[in-house]
Amino acid sequence: MRMPLPLRQGTAVALALSLALSGCGGGDSSSGGTFTPTPTPSSSGRFFADPAQEALTVAEVQQIVAQAVGEAKALNYPAIVAVVDRVGNVLAVFRMNGAVTRMITSQRTATGEISPREVDAQGLEVEATMGAISKAITAAYLSSSGNAFSTRTASMIVQEHFPPASNTPGLEAGPLFGVQFSQLPCSDLASRFVTGNAGSSAFIGPKRSPLGLAADPGGLPLYKNGVVVGGIGIMADGDYGYDPNVLDVDGDPEEYMALAGIQGFAPPADIRADRIPVDGSTLRFADAREEGLHPLQTSFAAINNVIGTLVPVRGYFDGTGVVAGTPYGSESSGIRRATTAEFSLPDAYVLTNGSGSDRYPIRGGTDSAAVGQPLTAAEVRAVLEEAFTIMTRARAQIRRPLDSRAQVSMSVVDTYGEVLGLVRGPDAPIFGIDVSLQKARTAAFFSNPVAAEQLLADTDAEIPAFVQRVRDFLGDQSALTGKVAFADRSGGNLSRPFFPDGELGRPNGPFSRPITDFNPFATGLQIALVKANLLQHAVFVQNSLNARDVAQTCTAVPDTPTGRKRLANGIQIFPGSVPIYRGDKLVGAIGISGDGIDQDDMIAFLGAHNGGVRVGSIGNAPKAIRADTIVVPIGAGVRLRYVNCPFSPFLDTSDQNVCEGK
């Protein structure tokens, strides 16, 4: 049924994003032997340089807003302009007089039609500031000192075919298919705005995003001295959309406004998405070009309280004045270099509470009641250290210059989904923090003996039906009871609108919507699990009837014995995780995110394997129960996949087939 205002369902567009890419990951170079790190670390014994602690000043944020608003005025197209810092703090939200107050998410399906049914999160009518903030966060979170991605980039990598175009039907889905439903407002990992910016925890990140990650063009990253310091997002047309065709060039006014905003704060040209190929296709950055801009307007005083004003956004920005950015890497940003007591490898970064304490210190599992012998802190440390070591050796897929080392975020969880440790590379994209945890929890959940039981008991009436769909699809009426080890690549296979992935005329996977209903807002189980959370948050943002904010936990699956949700920040459906076993007993999972998806798979898989070899007690799932032993009875039979490891993955050796036999 149609949602009553303020959350009515209605027309065009989608959400999406992030980054990680697919593909054969070693295409940039096959050099082996001694490798000189780029950029050069500041001390010996390290593989990475720390990003400079740059941040936007109040005056710079004002300039960025004024430039974007000046372009909007020249185009006679009133807009909302949002600016955030690298960890997601909202620094300004400016609404021009006459700008839209509401926006609608897409109800256009992948077939190009408007869906006759209101499916998942299609057609939500919400506060338009939510779109501007989500776009800004997307651009900031997907970018790093080695890659600059935009919301147009995000659009390209989350659709049902990659690249999305009229001549690409039959190709697999985008490498970051599903990443749009990360950074959710209900996430237990994401921090929240503190009214008045008071206290030591006020600016710690990563902050949540109102609608997850966005695929609507009009979000671009901001840089100072080659370092990403934030993002800008524009909402002007009320249509929160995506670009279904990369073959044409769009004259998108929102993108021109964002492009004006980043003048003086643009990324270096050689790290922009349009310099980065994935599976033979160069990514998109922006269709707007500088030569199409009007003369820049840089005076904030000339626009503030004249042609618009700063506006409060409940849960994100108080509207009383422009805020300076927080330098990434500082204690106050919530992400900093680890101490030797927190993690032994000197390049590691951790999440901090703003007062000096690691938010996710390495610890043992909490699930002894379920598994008997849970992961120990020493085992978790071994897996994370070995995964981190693999990361330092791996050739990056998306970073520039060529032959840079991969940088990712990595999380280990127990079978309850409790975080047992979280570390990251110094300059890994921010989006991968939440996504790595989603991936770890997803692998642990679907490999768990209680997976079906949990879904059947979800209080959303639609969720239990997915259990029977997957059982019928696999021809196994006992599926999702712990007999099979599912990596995120395996569950992702079952979450695509075509099975096998991309092949036209094939049925949808049992966790997906059929192609006639599918768009980036209607992915199936992934969004169905959190739709109620998104709706509640949207009502809160617009302050309808003094609504409460969504709880800091996603989904309505039953609580664990410790009173938490196993999927407290949602699930993820693109590759980069594996479950961890003690013999044939599931004890946890590791999730990786931030570079190519094959790189993510490899780091997770070899981290679990090498960590197990080191401590002699745990490791990857026994081969006999891995999901790639399942042959789906379609045609001659289609085998599920478990992990894909890239060709020529390492910078220090020429080894191939590095995951074979493990």
Sum up the structure in keywords:
662 residues; alpha+beta; Beta-Lactamase; five-stranded antiparallel beta sheet; four-stranded antiparallel beta sheet; 13 helices; 21% helix; disordered N terminus; PduO/GlcC-like
Q: What does this 3D model show about the protein?
A:
The chain is an alpha+beta fold. Among the domains are: 58-319, Beta-Lactamase, CATH 3.30.450; 332-447 and 574-620, Beta-Lactamase (2-Layer Sandwich), CATH 3.30.450.150. Helices cover 21% and strands 12% of the residues. Strands 5-6-1-2-10 form a 5-stranded antiparallel sheet. A 4-stranded antiparallel sheet has the order 14-13-16-15. Strand 5 and strand 6 form a beta hairpin. Helix 6 packs across helix 13 (597-615). It is globular and about 70 Å long. Residues 1-25 form the signal peptide. This is Heme-binding protein. Keywords: Signal.
